[in-house]
């Protein structure tokens, strides 16, 4: 059964909105993953090198050691809970799959029965996305 033109336009609009949202979250999770990892490496290195820093010009960092240790524990817990690397990869995978569906929708003749198949695939993709990437 063919979809009316306004329903196909609604489907396209919904798909574009999700694609844009997922593309934004790719950047958010990708950036947070890199930032958190770099922070954890640098901060834990400073805490681990506490003794070596006491005889160096970097001894001003020693006052920050307790704060850094607390921040390391907090960021490690957040990283474990949020799983930014897995979320980043999931959002990229789903964004790419949605791009493919959008390409298929563009190729479909307006009103053809394939539009309903694409709608079902989009619904399935959205469900998979929510199950795997949303808390």
List keywords for this structure.
about 140 residues; mainly alpha
Element layout with pairings:
Elements: H1 5-48, H2 50-53, H3 65-82, H4 84-107, H5 114-133
Helix pairs in contact: 1-3, 1-4, 4-5
Structure write-up:
By secondary structure, the protein is mostly helical. Helix content is 81%, strand content 0%. It has one domain. The chain has helices at 5-48, 50-53, 65-82, 84-107, 114-133. Helix 4 (84-107) packs antiparallel against helix 5. The protein starts with a helix and ends with a helix. 13% of the residues are buried.
Compact summary:
The chain is mainly alpha-helical and 135 residues long. The chain is built from 5 helices and no strands. The protein has one domain (5-133).
Average of the residue pLDDT scores:
86
SSE-based structural type: mainly alpha
Low-confidence stretches: none
Tell me how many strands there are.
0
Characterize the overall form.
rod-shaped
Summed up, the helix count is 5
User: How do the SSEs run, as a string of H and E?
Assistant: HHHHH
* Helix residue percentage: over 70%
Number of domains: 1
For the termini, the CA-CA separation is 36 Å
Provide the gyration radius in Å. Answer: 23 Å
User: β content, as a range?
Assistant: under 5%
Largest sheet: none
